[in-house]
Amino acid sequence: MLNKVPEVTVWFWVIKVLCTTVGESFADWINMKLGVGLVNTAWIFTAVFVVVLAVQLRLKRYVPFPYWLTVVVVSVTGTLYTDILTDQLNVPLWISSAVFSVLLAVVFGVWWLRERTLSIHSVTTLPRESFYWLAVLVTFALGTATGDWTLELTGWSPGVSVLLPLGLIAAITLLWRFGANPVLSFWLAYILTRPLGANIGDWLASPKVAENPGDPTGLALGTFTTSLIFLGLILATVVYLTVTRSDVTETHEAAHTAPTTGDPRKERLALAGFGLLAVATAGLLVWAHSQPHVGPAPEEDNTSAVQLAPGQAVKKFPPAKVAALKTLASTSLKDARSGNETGAHTAAQKLRDLWDADQASLQPLDRTGWNSIDAQMDKMLKTFGIDHSNPPMSPAQQEKELNALLTDMG
Predict the structure, then answer these.
(1) How far is CA 49 from CA 17, 55, 76, in A?
(2) Per-residue model confidence as pLDDT tens digits over 348-359
(3) In sequence order, what DSSP letters do the residues of 337-352 get, joined into one string?
(4) What residues have CB less than 8 Å from 137, skipping those under 6 apart?
(5) More confident position, 305 or 240
């Protein structure tokens, strides 16, 4: 029987990082461009994931296009699930990381108890492939949580943050070449490709103007351009693999013969190497966390208190984006006045989602204006208990802050 997973070559890792990058950028673009909000974006991609996975599971062998399309979609879906926990439910990233780590251990445990192998070279049955895609989904969610948690701890910029997962993957590769367990090495590297690809995408899409002095700047390509570039690279790579079939593995023999084992002594030494690598990484994060974080600069915080004339803060922003924000604010205000608490809260949450999605494109245009609106946006969200621990305030307070926000936006 043919294997349903491609051969793990350099091409595998290249296209895996490309898929992760385009998944991150494309999700951000859809969330920003369509203004559907984080939860609705997650529902959309969940539905797409179900469809493409159903097609993938029905295939009898590995076919490059449906397989890698599934990887792209699952990368977006897993990332969105973590973002919902963080942004919508206010779950701390360390908790998300712990929960997804336990969940992944459970998936691997059940997979091993049932199939007695976690090797992707033996994904030849429907149960094994189902476990494989479930593990992939959880690895993306875990990679998102741990990657974001790392950035939260260190305050690193996207350019610097690329180096950590890249260095860890290089170290894992060296240990694998030395004699580390190939299955363990594969899944560790697989998890790390998620923060690597996401950080590359953020670095390419983020503005050239550094948030803080001394930070490496982005390339200001934007999420849409970044998505197009990487979709083109993925398509070209998939076409190449389809023509050459260089990543297709015939595994009839592997499925009917006992797997070869490596040198137990080298595996033990490599396992100790993984442990040292984990300790060194933890030490680096602790050290980075203890350093003075160049977070929002004080002068930027002060600009949020600058009093601007009505409409001045959004003068440099695209009219269409301002209109979309004002529409949601007006809807929330109308519902608050009519006593529709649920409608007012929902519209305010959609307004928050759209504002967050537009940050990368609006903030570089006018930082003072953006900070001014952002400060008022935060005051408004606090009255609804959104992104704040306090309970919702009275409708009168909600109306007051919504009116102030609309005034600021002209």
Answers:
(1) 19, 10, 9
(2) 988 988 888 888
(3) HHT-HHHHHHHHHHHH
(4) 74, 77, 78
(5) 240
